[in-house]
Design goal:
Helices cover 76% and strands 5% of the residues. With 222 residues, it is mostly helical. The longest helix is centred in the middle third of the chain and has 25 residues, at 81-105.
Length: 222
């Protein structure tokens, strides 16, 4: 998307557009780790002002997805396999807690929304729509966080998620991995719906252990 003059997006809306689209581009590999992020080029790419691009970069820097190097500018932060595993291990504990709390606290309406999202995920896997499935996984986690009513754990997870989104997306690209992910998240939803807190926590931790194992395997294959 490009734009000039009056056609450029500005303000908070523009900043959010760049945040969302650049985050998505990094996750799916359209923008790669180590790639320079030049504000005028981002403005042209996303149809926003240079200032909006700069403000969006500041947000992504705070998330740990982008870094600014003195005298060289901003670039996509390189997250090594070992760092990704360390983050995933933290997520494993936090996601287990959130799943446990969701099993204890979710309303009937929240369980229904988790099940509805799961059905959409099943269709995405059947249609081999990895990008759609990846977005629905994030929707699943958002719903789970809301139903858990544990704001501290939710905030910590949100702060970690962006840093490992690309590793998780690469995991889903491998043959059979999306189905494996779906089966794991279905076990989480079933346990939450049945109010089985121990099972919900175990299922959430097992789901992330599969991602950890895949990251470790990929790092040894390089």
């Amino acid at each position: 998307m490009t734009g000039t003059g009056a056609h450029l997006l500005r303000g908070v809306q523009a900043r959010r557009v760049v945040e969302q689209r650049l985050r998505e581009d990094i996750t799916r590999g359209a923008v790669v780790p180590g790639q320079r992020l030049v504000e005028p080029e981002l403005g042209e790419r996303y149809g926003v002002t240079r200032n909006s691009a700069r403000l969006a970069l500041d947000v992504l820097i705070a998330e740990g997805l982008v870094e600014r190097i003195p005298h060289r500018g901003a670039r996509v932060r390189v997250v090594s396999p070992s760092e990704a595993v360390a983050i995933l291990e933290c997520r494993q504990v936090l996601d287990g807690l959130l799943a446990r709390k969701a099993a204890q606290n979710a309303t009937v309406g929240e369980v229904d929304r988790l099940r509805a999202t799961l059905e959409r995920m099943r269709r995405a896997v059947a249609d081999q729509e990895v990008l759609v499935y990846s977005a629905l996984v994030q929707e699943h986690h958002r719903l789970l966080r809301e139903s858990a009513r544990q704001p501290m754990a939710s905030s910590l997870v949100e702060g970690l998620q962006s840093r490992i989104a690309r590793h998780q997306f690469r995991f889903l690209l491998r043959p059979g991995r999306a189905r494996q992910s779906l089966d794991g998240l279905a076990r989480v939803v079933d346990a939450v719906a049945e109010r089985r807190a121990d099972a919900a926590e175990s299922a959430a931790r097992a789901h992330l252990q599969a991602v950890i194992d895949a990251v470790l395997q990929e790092s040894t294959e390089r």
